[in-house]
Amino acid sequence: MAFEINRDSIVQSFILDTLKGESLQIYLYGCNYNGSTHLANPSAALAEINNAFNTVKYLDYKAILIQSSLNDLGVAMVFALDEARYKDSKYLNPEYVVLLRIAIQNALNNNAPNFTYGDVLIGTSQVDKDYN
Question: Which of 1, 9, 95, 112 has the most CB atoms around its CB within 10 Å?
Answer without folding.
Answer: 112
